[in-house]
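Limitations
The structure tokens in this dataset are predictions for the assembled complex, not deposited experimental models. Users should treat interface geometry with appropriate caution, especially where small molecules or nucleic acid strands are included. An illustrative entry is reproduced here so readers can see what is and is not provided.
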Amino acid sequence: MNYFIELVVSGLAVGAIYGLVAMSFAVIFKATGIVNFAQGEIGMLTAYTTWSLATTLGTGAVFTVLLSIIVGAVIGLLCERLIMRPMLGEPVLSVVLVTVGLAVVLRSMVTMIWDASPHKFEVARADEILQIGGIGMRVSQVGVIAVLLLALAAFWFFLRRSRFGVAMRAVAADEKTARLMGVSTARVQAVAWASASALAGLAGAFFAVIYGLAPTVFELGLKAFPATVLGGFDSILGSGGSGVFIGVLENLVGGYLSSTLKEISGFMLILVVLMVRPFGLFGEKRIERV
Amino acid sequence: MRSGFFKQRYADLIVLTDSLTVKAWIGVLLIALAGAPLVFGSYMLSHLTVILFTLVGVLGLTVLTGFTGLISLGHVGFLMLGAYSYAVGVTRLGLPPELALVMAAVVPALCGLVVGIPSLRLHGLYLAITTLAFSYIVSAVILAGGKFTGAGRGISITRPVMLGIDLSSDRAYYWFCLAMCALAVLITLNVRRSYFGRALVAIRDNDIAARTMGISLVRFKLLAFLLSAALTGVAGAMMGMYLGIVSVESFPFLLSIEALAIVIVGGLGSVLGAVFGTIFILSLPDLVSGAMSMLSGRVQDLMTTSAHEIRSMLYGLAIIAFLRFDPRGLRGIWHDVRHAWVHWPQRY
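Predicted assembly:
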């Protein structure tokens, strides 16, 4: 039983990271209707930049988290302005393939600027063990779960209550009508990219703190994919929640069955999900009569 | 008396080419390609061989993404399956190489059917994810396969004797690749002009309209997957024979991206574009390092230490640049150049 609880708890922490990345996929999909295949790479680039800045500035834990948000948002804005904005109005296929290209470029950029060997992302007090109800958890693990909950609450508030969130939902529902109503698609896209990259950046930084910094951090994007599919591509909150589910599932499969299955359990799950409910658990069902 | 060229039969309209000049030039090209090994050194020969077997795989992706408009991010999965079917067939099951090569087409094709089934319900992006998942599952299964698939160590194979011809020399292997590649080009061109290919293009352009014209989406999407996977599988087997070893590491995810880059850079949905794209993308690293060697030594050091990164960065930049500035790809540029040549000094 103890083993089980330990697996679930560490699964919750990984799942929270997946959840953050899955949310960022969903934010961009909801606002612009494309899947950003470079999300994991943006998270990795943010993690590396934050690491460089944090070690030179010698920042504390809270400030490092804030730093990762800012760095992520800036990277997102740059990518949007330089690469995605000119593609506005192009066919979906081209735009998605551009993000694939962006992913490859960012990935090789990271290895060229920094190096391919793993590093330790040192943050003060991140590795201390907290005892919660008899289970030991690292501060960073508790932190990432708290951040996910905060992000979920913030996005719920943003989409329901703020003017811009409503504009974003309007663009997602019907781009043409939204533009006729005076919503600027370009600005919505910029905000979506900035906030999604901030989420991915947070995830990347936390992943680096907990598991170490290496050029394989981008695989986070691939790992979080199943979560987004499970939650539904247009459901930001659903994706965040599903991330936790996938994380726990992965850990349980790894703990009880085999480590090879652990790597692909998420993908196996989504193959089934895609066949039964392509729009995910919480996504909006699109009725097609043809 | 006849006063012009008339297309009197339906076959005349869809014939590959009716121009004697084009036929003559293709003949010249084929002779030049067949004679290439007698002229070029071993480096150039192996470069040409790589281009030839890559082209076979790219044609597979062209059928799926170019003709049918289904994005696949998991083509490396089919490539891997093809290579492993061949290697397992030859070394574990003791099949003759000809039969193993057929198996390298059949096994991926069957798996293509399985991956294709979700495509009936899924549109563009979801399908891309499914194929991505597929390629990861394939490599995980191979790694878990123990002795039968050689797990992490892979299977080493030797170049076979095919139809009584020994392929162990580089020249013989080049000719074999040339023949296979010519066959693949012919198949794809004929698919494109026939009912099957036009149905696929109709599905790509507007699936609802295609369906109202009586094209069964189920049947043609699955057939597209089947053909695409079979071609890619054969390319995988050829790649395995070329490398001499089949292992999971020799099929990185980057190959899927490379194939997509080739298809986009060449021009989506065209066989000529696939040829141009393959030559361009595969020669790009050599061209760039050649250009860089004229620069200072520091840049040269960077080229040698991080060759892999520079390669993948070039692919990424090529994808972005072509999609951004000329989505028609190299084929479009070729078209413009040809017209400028014919109509000079007029603009058009």
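Some entries come with short summary sentences. For this one: The longest strand of chain A covers residues 129-132.
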